[in-house]
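Lecture 7 notes: from sequence to structure.
We start with the chain below.
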Amino acid sequence: MVNRKQLHPERSPRDKFGQLVRAMRDERGWTQEELARRLGCTGSQVSAIETGRRSTTQRFAKKLDLTFGTGDRLERQSQAVRPAALLEGFSEYLSHEARAAEVRLFENGVVPGPLQTREYAQALADGAVQRDDISPEQAHDRVEVLIERQAALVRKPWPLVFVVLDESCIRRQVGSPEIMRAQMERLIEFALLPNTALQIAPFSMGERKPFIRLVHLLTLPDRSLMSYVESQTQGFLDRDQASVLPLVKNYHQLQVEAASQADSVAMIEQLRKGTQ
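Predicted structure tokens for the same chain:
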């Protein structure tokens, strides 16, 4: 107990969450190492969560609830511990994406999160750390959120997932050639799933391409529509049908103009071979 670090829950939601975990652990008379064994992680990870050095993920919070027998209390509490590396509005978007009946994505420059390999995502996060945009801890959070996002789309009934990638997404190298080759293989695997569609919007579309930045469109179970777009520093979630419907129209136009899935996969396969 001599080296027990004092907690400051008033500083942030992350610190408040850490204090709650420590209090529950203390109630049961467990050490950090004992809790770690029950969770299947390391004592240093438990320590980092309790002292607020690392934010929790939804998956880790679920494990804590299961271990403590606290229902979904910690999972709900974890929603307030949004990693600072995420743009405002994106966390709320993810909660809707996780229950959407249809997901439509357009991306420019990088492969979108649901299709990224862990190594590709880590390379992007490492680049942000090198630019001093985020901390190493935030980079870890960013990758873990992405893995949870991918897991949330693997559910029944299967959501329909339509993806149109600007050609720059597959031509821009992220990480090593090995990382890019694995990423190309992941795209091909995605295209073969029964509930997905993948197309490339080639450079030759020029001015006919309706989008130049990320656009995400959701059809929710009640058939209502929602859009999410980003600037460099801000995310915007929109439920107003008057502004969402034009984006849906443009997305359909984009799909008509883009290469077919067969031609898109052939293009990706050709690039994959070039990374060997």
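Points to note: The mean pLDDT is 89. The first strand starts at residue 102 and ends at 107.
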